[in-house]
């Protein structure tokens, strides 16, 4: 019996061997940060890459443990990169203030994170057109700064409780204990044009595509004040050239207000009533849907590099830049399991859910079995 139990355990470990792994030797690492990576057992043939950034006092392991992004990586075959900031930076916050970090190829944290992305793309044959970033608090501030300094790298970003790009510039530090906290206290307000110039000046002369943004904030955040949410929207509306067309109450759920810019494909914001710093859920499916990584995979068979068994490898179709304007009906004959996608613009998979789950529309582009 013991032998059977051991055999079952070994088989299970071969079926699902993915875990968070530390990586060294990924680049020149100008600011001495660390890298961890999650590569699912079933990897897309040209996988997207999603970077997830922790807040002050955290690290890559903590960010990995506090969200469900890896469950979606397992299903859709994309790679997750979890950087950790230099512990010598106050409270293990990201450097969101120095000229090095606020300048393209300036030698700061932004450049180090991009080196991790480049390593991942090269090692796993990743899709350089499908690189994304999400962050919380200090990581959200870094998300905005990465969108400003490396718009050529990041196709879309999602900051949770952040501040505009370059908001901390000249403060001498970018953590809650810094003597100058005028940025998180919302004492720095600028016009949309001025904020846009701050972002553009991070990469002088750049004229290519700009990073799409989905911005989240708690309306009762008393550490990074909710006024910063409006300053972020001002900045990226100017950079992306879109105007606010309205607000939608109780979207995506009760207590949230959606701030819609243009058609919502370039910029959208969500302000959560009654929620403070760190209390806004990551809404993983909505973030990843906005990014465009929740594509229906086809499968092919290959030999896993983690074990000698044969596993399926996901393959995905190229990104369509989300310009679809009509809804494609799903497959009514199949059933999707709980947490799986069941509808939305462009969805061609199962539209029914296995009981007792029911298909719930979260936004025009994504419905999920809940």
UniProtKB/TrEMBL annotation:
Alphabetized InterPro entries for the sequence: AB_hydrolase_fold (IPR029058), CBD (IPR000254), Esterase_phb (IPR010126), Plant_Biomass_Hydrol_Est (IPR050955)
Entry annotated with the keyword Metal-binding: no
Domain of life: Eukaryota
GO cellular component: extracellular region
Gene Ontology biological-process annotations: xylan catabolic process
Leader sequence segment: 1-17
Pfam families (UniProt xref): CBM_1 (PF00734), Esterase_PHB (PF10503)
Residues annotated as domain CBM1: 334-370
Secreted is among the record's keywords: yes
Top-level class of the enzyme under EC nomenclature: hydrolase
Localization per record: Secreted
UniProt keyword list: Carbohydrate metabolism, Glycoprotein, Hydrolase, Polysaccharide degradation, Secreted, Serine esterase, Signal
Protein function: Esterase involved in the hydrolysis of xylan, a major structural heterogeneous polysaccharide found in plant biomass representing the second most abundant polysaccharide in the biosphere, after cellulose.
Family: Belongs to the carbohydrate esterase 1 (CE1) family.
Name assigned to this protein: Carboxylic ester hydrolase
Protein species of origin: Orbilia blumenaviensis
């Amino acid at each position: 019996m013991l032998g059977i139990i051991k055999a079952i355990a070994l088989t299970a470990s071969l079926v699902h061997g993915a875990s968070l792994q530390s990586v060294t030797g990924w680049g020149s690492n100008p600011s001495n940060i660390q890298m961890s990576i999650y590569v699912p057992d079933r990897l897309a043939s040209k996988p997207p890459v999603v970077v997830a950034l922790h807040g002050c006092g955290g690290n890559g392991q903590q960010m990995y443990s506090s969200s469900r992004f890896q469950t979606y990586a397992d299903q859709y075959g994309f790679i997750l990169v979890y950087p950790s900031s230099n512990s010598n930076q106050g409270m293990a916050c990201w450097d969101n203030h120095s000229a090095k970090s606020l300048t393209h190829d300036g030698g700061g944290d932004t450049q180090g994170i991009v080196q991790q992305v480049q390593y991942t793309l090269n090692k796993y044959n990743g899709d350089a057109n499908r690189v994304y970033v999400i962050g919380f608090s200090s990581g959200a501030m870094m998300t905005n700064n990465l969108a400003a300094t490396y718009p050529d790298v990041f196709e879309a970003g999602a900051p949770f409780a952040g501040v505009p790009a370059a908001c901390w510039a000249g403060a001498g530090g970018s953590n809650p204990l810094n003597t100058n906290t005028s940025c998180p206290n919302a004492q720095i307000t600028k016009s949309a044009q001025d904020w846009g110039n701050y972002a553009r000046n991070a990469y002088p002369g750049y004229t290519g595509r700009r990073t799409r943004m989905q911005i989240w904030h708690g309306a009762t955040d008393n550490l990074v004040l909710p006024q910063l949410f409006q300053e972020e929207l001002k900045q990226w509306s100017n950079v992306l050239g879109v105007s606010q067309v309205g607000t939608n109450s109780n979207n995506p759920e009760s207590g949230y207000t959606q701030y819609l810019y243009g058609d919502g494909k370039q910029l959208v914001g969500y302000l959560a009533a009654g929620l403070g710093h760190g209390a806004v859920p990551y809404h993983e499916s909505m973030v990843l849907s906005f990014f465009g990584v929740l594509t229906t995979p086809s499968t092919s068979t290959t030999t896993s590099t983690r074990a000698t068994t044969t596993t399926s490898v996901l393959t995905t179709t190229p990104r369509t830049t989300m310009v679809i304007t009509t809804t494609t009906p799903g497959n009514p004959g199949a059933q999707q399991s709980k947490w799986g996608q069941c509808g939305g613009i462009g969805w061609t998979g199962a539209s029914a859910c296995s009981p007792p789950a029911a298909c719930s529309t979260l936004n025009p582009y994504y419905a999920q079995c809940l």
